[in-house]
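Quick question, first post here. What does this chain look like in 3D?
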Amino acid sequence: MSTTPTELPTGRAPGRTWTVRLTGHADRTATVSCSTSACTMPPRSRDVAALRRFAALHAASHAKAARVRERASCQCWTQSCSAHEGMRVHCSGSTVLVLRHDPAVACVWHLAEVCAACAKVMPHTRVVGLPAPTARPATAAPERSERAGQPIPAPAAPAAVAVGFSSPSPIGGDEAPRRAPGQARRSKRRGVPRGGQRR
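> Answer (accepted):
Ran it through. Tokens below.
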């Protein structure tokens, strides 16, 4: 296990963390809390399954909204690498955003900016965010399109995709609308084949 650090590496900001927690109570109700005090949580409820789905989706929303900072220090390192106790590593690689969620416990979702080396050995962890690509030098001339002579915008950074949550699908999911029963038969009666062109 790493020793407790005395100071942050030069020029690095502390790695950020977010913790979403599902807490059960003696009356068989539960509550969801978030380490970000500005977040609005649902009321205490007996529907623990719904609260667990909410907690997973709330952690996912933090993962999607966070912009990973390349110069952030490893949050795991600042905690003496307690997240992978017994696995000796040297902090290295780029900063990534990870989600830690143990399905056997299923009540805590922990997001953190850590180094790539620590991320590889942390149990029950998925990388859910990468640092944005570095900007092009200001001296580089923008490319021009052949037709309009307009600058071609730089490709947008790919959005971080949050994976590994216990919720099987988003609430009010993004499934494609299903075809109503009998819709295909009505299309055939109207003489419209599958290709979409009339005979």
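Residues 1-6, 143-194 have pLDDT under 50 and may be disordered.
The CA atoms of residues 128 and 162 lie 5 Å apart.
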